[in-house]
Write a structure and sequence with these properties.
By secondary structure, the protein is α+β, with helices and mostly antiparallel strands. Helix content is 32%, strand content 29%.
């Protein structure tokens, strides 16, 4: 499973004031069918006066992640606020 995420960095008054923010996201099917949607969102994010930089990052999730996410959504615990996921490999 691949995700395409717009990450942006806000203009800072001092170093470390803001962490990078995930602004928009789509999966590989959406990207293949309509990447223009995310590219349009990227242009809009970049046009904001408080944004220093914004880029689209392609993130590949580990094998089986899509199935894990689907199962977690279907079998969700009512009060669970987040599902813990670990990055196990870096390139």
């Amino acid at each position: 499973m691949r995700l395409y995420v717009i990450f942006a960095q806000r203009v800072e008054r001092y170093e470390g004031e803001y962490a990078p923010e995930a602004m928009e996201c789509m999966d590989e099917i959406g990207w293949d069918e309509n990447s223009e949607w995310l590219l349009d969102k990227l242009d809009k994010v970049k046009a904001q006066s408080d944004i220093l930089s914004a880029k689209i990052f392609e993130i590949e999730l580990a094998k089986g992640a899509g199935d894990f996410i689907r199962k977690s959504l279907i079998d969700s615990v009512p009060n669970m606020k987040a599902v813990n996921v670990a990055i196990i490999e870096e390139n």
